[in-house]
Specification:
single chain; alpha/beta; Rossmann fold; 5-stranded mixed barrel; 9 strands; globular; binds hypoxanthine
Length: about 270
């Protein structure tokens, strides 16, 4: 018997609730090297992905592979330490399954974070960028297929996928922290290759400021589910052609260096919203 998506969501949700999870306001997706924020969750309950029905298992180095429930910035959160990527071979239904589950658990908003390459020539390695919009350059869309109208509309409006009222709050929080928070458009590729210099020049012309291999599918499903989204990229490197070579070790090194500021920003944002 093949289960419907709704049945899988219900099973995963029931399992997670049974671990002692109460009310949740915010989902948090912690990107490559940024998972440590999950360690600051107070009164934490951790749930390994591999025990949750229908949850994929994260394979990328620098991802812990668990949910952490508790309090952060005075809000009840469920943080994902590690996410799933299309390039790992998961279907987009699998990649975005945690968003569906968090929605079913009662979140109204999600903070999505990632490591990204800087395309905007005014960005420096180690800066943080608030995502104001994205370009789906993956060539696929997680909403392709039959639409379950109990989950969201057939045609989802992406005009304000990144919540505009939240953007104003994030801006304000950064200002109070004296943080030079950049803003811009994230372009999502599937990976797992980094982009070519020509692709980066093209992306810049198209209006992208940062590039990565995640986030876009999750934000599309969040929009479908009516969730409010905050997006933050850590600019871990300059994009292809703007520095000599690219590698994952540098991405992790940069997140390591910036994580203090990153953690403070997200905690302060949670406190302010
Ligand atoms: N490209 C794609 N994904 C990334 C990059 C990049 O330059 N840096 C970190 N994640």
């Amino acid at each position: 018997m093949t289960l419907t998506l709704q049945e899988k969501i219900t099973e995963a949700t029931d399992f997670i609730k049974a671990q002692g999870i109460g009310e949740i306001e915010f989902g948090l997706i912690l990107g490559s090297g940024l998972g440590e924020l999950g360690d600051e969750v107070e009164d934490a309950i951790a749930i390994k992905y591999d025990g949750i029905p229908y949850f994929p298992v994260s394979t990328v180095e620098g991802h812990a592979g668990q949910l952490v429930y508790g309090t952060l910035g005075e809000k009840k959160v469920l943080a994902m330490q590690g996410r799933f990527h299309y390039y790992e071979g998961y279907s987009l239904e699998e990649v975005t399954f945690p968003i569906r589950v968090m929605k079913a658990l009662g979140i109204h908003s999600v903070i999505v974070t990632n490591a990204a390459g800087g395309i905007n020539t005014s960005f420096s390695q180690g800066e943080l960028m608030m995502i104001t919009d994205h370009i789906n350059y993956t060539g696929v869309n997680p909403l392709i297929g039959p639409n379950d109208s109990t989950m969201g509309p057939r045609f989802t409006d992406m005009s304000q996928a990144y919540d505009v009222a939240y953007q104003a709050i994030v801006r304000d929080v950064a200002k109070k922290m004296d943080l030079d928070l950049k803003e811009g458009v994230y372009i999502g590729y599937t990976g797992p290759t980094y982009e070519t210099p020509a692709e980066i020049r093209m992306s810049r012309v198209m209006g992208a400021d940062a590039v990565g291999m995640s986030t876009v599918p999750e934000v599309i499903v969040a929009a479908h589910a009516g969730l409010r989204v905050i997006g933050v990229s850590c600019i871990t490197n300059l994009a292809a052609g703007m520095q000599a070579t690219l590698n994952h070790a540098e991405v992790v090194e940069t997140t390591e260096r910036v994580k203090g500021t990153f953690k403070a920003l997200i905690k302060n944002v949670l406190q302010a919203v």
